[in-house]
Amino acid sequence: MHDSFGSIVAEVAEVSVDARKRIRVHKVSCAVDCGQVVNPLGIEAQAQGAVVFGLSAALLGAVTLKEGRVEQSNFHDYRVLRMPEVPDVTVQILESDAKMGGIGEPATAPIAPAVANAVYALTRQRLRSLPLRLT
């Protein structure tokens, strides 16, 4: 769960781990309370995009250095999730009497802990650094 920009977002991930110890996220359930709702489809789209953005960083977002320089320069050598890798993301909007909050970034932060918790439930191994990797 994460509270930022006047919105509260909670996420749960459904994961599996293959024989090579790669983490695969199949489903993400996202609950959003951003106060009064004006455009529910916009909220859903922003939350889904934020989950994919955060999941890309959580699973793939390594920045490496060689001879004191960053090796990645753009998306050709900095991996992000491709469409076949994107999980099913469902968004539940909880309308409340709270003041309107933001929706662009709040759904990004909870995905890494949600995946780490799901991996722990599956493997009993705590993941404490990014990108998330099993040893």
Give structural notes.
With 135 residues, this protein is α+β, with helices and mostly antiparallel strands. The protein has one domain (2-122): Aldehyde Oxidoreductase, domain 4, CATH 3.30.365. The chain has two helices and six strands; from the N terminus they run βββαβββα. It is globular and about 50 Å long. The mean pLDDT is 95.
Task: Walk me through the topology.
Layout: E1 2-4, E2 7-17, E3 23-33, H1 40-60, E4 65-66, E5 69-70, E6 88-93, H2 111-123
Task: Write a compact overview of the structure shown.
The chain is α+β, with helices and mostly antiparallel strands and 135 residues long.
Regions with little confidence, pLDDT below 50 for 5+ residues: none
Which word captures the global form? globular
Distance between the termini: 26 Å
Reading off the top of the CATH hierarchy, the class is best stated as: Alpha Beta
Provide the residue-averaged pLDDT: 95
The ordered H/E elements are EEEHEEEH
- Major pleated sheet: 4 strands, mixed
Known CATH architecture: 2-Layer Sandwich
Helix/strand structural class: alpha+beta
Number of helices: 2
**Could you estimate the helical fraction of the residues in percent?**
25-40%
Number of strands: 6
Order of strands, main sheet, comes to 1-2-3-6
Can you give keywords for this protein?
135 residues, alpha+beta, Aldehyde Oxidoreductase, domain 4, four-stranded mixed sheet, two-stranded antiparallel sheet, 2 helices, 25% helix, globular
